[in-house]
Amino acid sequence: MTVTAYAPASTGNVSLGYDILGLALAPVSGELLGDRVSVIEETSVFELTNTGRFAHKLPEDPKENIVYDCFVGFKAELAELGIDVRPVKMQLEKNLPIGSGLGSSASSIVAALAALNEFYGKPLNDDKLLRLMGKLEGQISGSIHYDNVAPCYLGGLQLMVESEQCISSSLPVFDEWYWTICYSGASVSTAAARKILPQEFSIKTTIEFGRQLALFVDALHKGDRVLAASVMTDVIAEPYRKSLLTNFDNARAYAESEGSLAFGISGSGPTVFAVSDSAETAEKIKLWLEQNYIQNENGFAHVCKIDTHGTKVSEDV
Ligand SMILES: Nc1ncnc2c1ncn2[C@@H]1O[C@H](COP(=O)(O)OP(=O)(O)OP(=O)(O)O)[C@@H](O)[C@H]1O
Ligand SMILES: N[C@@H](CCO)C(=O)O
Questions:
Q1: CATH code for the domain defined by 3-171
Q2: Under a CB-based contact definition with an 8 Å cutoff, are residues 308 and 296 in contact?
Q3: What is the pTM of this model?
Q4: What is the mean pLDDT of residues 264-285?
């Protein structure tokens, strides 16, 4: 029986929470914005076929696809439980662009592991799966960060806890907020965008980062949208990364002139996001970004809400 998992796009950092905050995205149009991975059947040799809009951007060798590493990692975890996993035939529908800032590798990893786990009767619990997802994401970006895999798998707005007991905790969200996202069509390597950041920050920046994050979480729990929006600025990555993004300052200036509540880089970019409290403003910003931020035929924009469901697994998706 074929098992298919859909894992949504995600925004890491959310400006103010570098590596600590992430949220899952669902276009209000109802379109899917995420990868789908199917486990079709057991076979004698591992097989992977790629379909979808961005399949042609994937490595040609299936063994260089992160989905293969997911299979290898999953097999090793099950071996520790005394369960033997035979090679499988898998399919990846690659709907998210690579190096987009939308958690593209995370989406493939999460969908692959969720589908494998379901196919084998759920031998791994959420915690084990999340730790494995983080490890595989770290393999690609150079260091483990859960701010894409956790919201992608669990849905909602997630705060990275990373304790022995728990990887991630779900935060309250504002249903009134719209998240306009726009991918320019360029590719930014997450590993490279991490390398350009300083290894140390001043005490002033450190205090500002902590203050903002604390106030944001407090504001979410109090339901104070004005306070939450007022601290959504990025003192860690944006000052260094924005030079990688063509037309970033103009895009921010336009979004702010239209009354957006916050504007920033999604993950390591080049996707940007704007938060608005009306569908009309969100659509207006989307239109401007489509006309002025997109650079080539690979780009796109969506008005989204937070995807509170996360990964969906089904035997007949
Ligand atoms: N299924 C896959 N999906 C995405 N990238 C993959 C996949 N398999 C292998 N890769 C490789 O992993 C690397 C992903 O790079 P990177 O981490 O910069 O992109 P990303 O995860 O798509 O970024 P982002 O999180 O910003 O969307 C690329 O070198 C790509 O070729
Ligand atoms: N927190 C990660 C997200 C990458 O999508 C980073 O900004 O490098």
A1: 3.30.230.10
A2: no
A3: 0.97
A4: 98
